[in-house]
Amino acid sequence: MLCLPFLAACAPKEPSAPAVKPARPKLVIGLIPEQNIFRQIERYGPLMDYLGEKAGVKFELKVLPRYGNIVDHFKSLELDGAFFGSFTYALAHRRMGVTVLARPENLKGASTYHGMIFVRKDSGIQSAKDMKGKRMAMVDKATTAGYLLPLAFFRENGITDHGKFLKEVYFTGTHEDAIRDVLERKADIGAAKNTIYERILSGDPHVGLLLRVLAVSPDVPENGLAVRKDLDKDLAGKIRDALLAMDRDPDGAGVLRDFGARKFIETGDKDYDPVYRYAREANIDLATYDYLND
What we know:
D-Maltodextrin-Binding Protein, domain 2
């Protein structure tokens, strides 16, 4: 057959365009301010990149300026989930029904943390009665270690109004800053979580020679990933499964090591029973509690 250039049937075929991969859904995850924003992103960024590839989503991280913001702005910032501290999870679960998926187990095999009340060894403070007229650095009213523990500590020592008993109480916003303020003598007493203290201690062992721990809280779950209650269940399952399988994947194991964890373990609301009990003993109604710092 004679083929003429103007006949469409004889025209050379255009190369087919490469298939376009469908865009991955984006989920926005909030982070509480345990440390400064740069350390938080540096720690969680690689974890979420790995998790996004495995679960087929794209994650965007938002580090919030205060603990209470996670609960206060969960809807306004359109967060899909967050790595909640134990008390912020209890608040968010009670108010919004968030579902916890998993939490990390650290390199020592612990998946919990506890609060600490500490002073400098050269402060002369040995007990609660020695704290009269002193300055105390707490973290935030929405933390277990940085607020609920001090409330319980003073109550157990017969101090009904710690605000009047102490010269000053102020909130640092991060556990790291509460520890630093005591080290630098900006405060006489501090309250923070042991995992942040141990992280500081690993970088500067001299810190352990300067501080004395006076009280500790019961163990509560390490910061767990919880998602909004209406997130697609299949997607939530993929995220949970990817977290729980990380330690069995060579790439995942490397990410975990840099994150400071051995693996993630499945977590449920019952794991937070010590937090709910602590709140009840402090006469805190999670449904109406005002967690904004004074």
